[in-house]
Amino acid sequence: MEELLNKARLVATKAVMDAGNIAKDRFGNVTSMEEKDDFGDIITEVDHLAEAVILNALTSAFPDHKIHSEEAGDNGLQSEWLWQVDPLDGTNNFAIGLPVFTASITLLYKHEPVLGVIYEPMVDRLFLSSVNGGSFCNDTALKVMKRDHPKKFTIAWIQGHKVQNDEKAVILRQYIDVNCKRMMRLWAPTLQWCMLAKGDIDGIILYNSEGDDLYSGILMVKEAGGIVIDFEGNDFTGMSNEPYLIACHPDNKEYFLKMVREGLNQSRESIHLI
Known about the structure:
Elements: H1 2-26, E1 33-35, E2 42-44, H2 45-61, E3 66-69, E4 73-74, E5 81-89, H3 91-95, E6 102-109, E7 112-120, E8 125-130, E9 134-137, E10 140-141, E11 154-159, H4 167-177, E12 182-184, H5 189-198, E13 203-207, H6 215-223, E14 227-230, E15 244-248, H7 253-273
Parallel strand pairs: 3-5, 11-12, 11-13
Antiparallel strand pairs: 1-2, 3-4, 5-6, 6-7, 7-8, 8-9, 9-10, 13-15, 14-15
Helix pairs in contact: 1-2, 4-7, 5-6
């Protein structure tokens, strides 16, 4: 497995940087854009161009592996190895000229992430994590930071496209917003995971957001010393079609669980009153 992972690291790193640079070169010059669904998600020609570069690299190097990509979907193969590809995480930001986006590749073995590679092309930051190998940004080791004074926390909120203004989500989001220094929504989830791993923010609350941009970030945080748990406090492993997650420094676990439970209880009470 070690030999395969070494090869995977090299292939994925080159592919994700090539894809990211396609987006960088075309930033501010979107020529084609269309809506993917009824929930406001969009796709540009850069999504397709970046995706093609990554898929060609992965298919050539690992022809027997299963691949699932944000736009192209599943390649139809059955394998214990699964690649997940988000060629442009933050398409909405890219489309409106906001330079906050990445390209992301994850390799999973038996439903567990073993390699995550995320590239932020506008600032040339390469994030790399591997199971039991740590997390790095441009070769600098990452570490989830512990801070005192929870009221001064910066907490990232990530929700699935279909969540929209789901009443429970809205009430929980508002509760978190008034119980921390600031709540951050970037519409580029992989960057939020990288920011937590890097020590720039204090936690992530993820509400039913499963996709090809999820597991590279989870591995990044875990390998940087953070924890990822569900809303019941159980360690999150494997994959889930409807994940509800908390990510933070281990010492802040009980604080985040309490905050989420209080927010969810408030939402239940509000809905009951209605």
